[in-house]
Amino acid sequence: MTTTTSVSLAVRDVHLAFGAHRVLRGADLDVARGGAACVIGPSGSGKSTLLRTINRLIEPDRGDVLLDGRSVLRDDPDALRQRVGMVFQQFNLFPHLSVLRNVTLALRKLKKLDEDEAVALARAQLDLVGLAGKADSRPAQLSGGQQQRVAIARALALRPQVMLFDEATSALDPELVKGVLAVMADLAAAGMTMVVVTHEMGFARSVADTVAFMDAGVVLESGPPEAVFEAPEHPRLRRFLSQVL
Ligand code: ADP
Ligand code: MG
C-alpha cells in the first residue's frame, strides 16, 4: 500500500464539555510520523470524542491539536478533513451509489479531479483493499467487511496524512473482522500515521507503537504495547485489562 508523506500528531491538553458533562478533561496523545496509536478504554471514556476533535468534527473548548507541530485549529475544516481521514463503526456508504461511485464522489467534489482521474484513482485504491472485482456492485451486495474496506478505500483515495479509525470492526460479524484488520495493519506497515480506537487487543498488541488507555476523559496511561499490557501501572488500567483479556 502506498502512502503520501505522513505527519506526526499531537493532542495537547484537550478539554471538551457537552453542557455540564465534561467529556474530555485534558487529553494528551502523541503519535510519531508514521506511527500507529491504539486507543483503548471503557465505553463512555471519550475515545470517539477525542478522535472527533482531531479532525474537527467537534471543536475542543481548550487545548490544541498539532500536525507536524503546527496547530490545525485555525485551518479550514474541510481542508483539514482531506488531510485527516476517518473511518467509523457504521460504514456510512451511499446505498444508491456503486462501490466505485462511493469512492469517486469525494475525489470529484473535494479534490476536483476530472472523471477519468477519479475513476483511475478509485479503481487503484479498491484494488489495494482487495475489492477490484466489486467496483460496480452496490454496498448492499457486499459483506460488512467488504463495505468497511470500501469505506477505507474512500478515505485513502483522498491521500490523507493521518487516518483515524473509530471501532472500525465492532459492527462486523466475527469472521469478517480479520480482513479489515489486515488492511489496517498493511496501512500501518506502509507508514501511515494512525489513531485506532479498538477493542481488538491482539491488533493493539501486534500493530500499535503506542497504546493509550482512556478513562473519564483523559489518557490515563500510555506506552509501548508490551508495557501497557504486561506491566500496567494504573489500577484502573489493570482492572480494565482483567475484564477484556
Ligand atoms: P467512547 O467512544 O469512549 O465510548 P464517547 O466519546 O462516545 O465515548 O462519549 C463520551 C461521553 O460523552 C459519553 O458519556 C457520551 O454520552 C457523551 N457524548 C458524546 N457525544 C455527545 C454529544 N454530541 N452530546 C452530548 N453528549 C455526548
Ligand atoms: Mg466510541
From TrEMBL:
InterPro entries given in the database record: AAA+_ATPase (IPR003593), ABC_ATPase_HisP-typ (IPR030679), ABC_transporter-like_ATP-bd (IPR003439), ABC_transporter-like_CS (IPR017871), MetN_ABC_transporter-like (IPR050086), P-loop_NTPase (IPR027417)
Keywords: Amino-acid transport, ATP-binding, Cell membrane, Membrane, Nucleotide-binding, Transport
Record's subcellular location: Cell membrane
CDD domains in the record: ABC_HisP_GlnQ
Domain ABC transporter: 9-241
GO MF entries: ATP binding
Topology with respect to the bilayer: Peripheral membrane protein
Primary localization class, coarse: membrane
Residues in the signal sequence: none
Family, as annotated: Belongs to the ABC transporter superfamily.
Protein name per Swiss-Prot or TrEMBL: Polar amino acid transport system ATP-binding protein
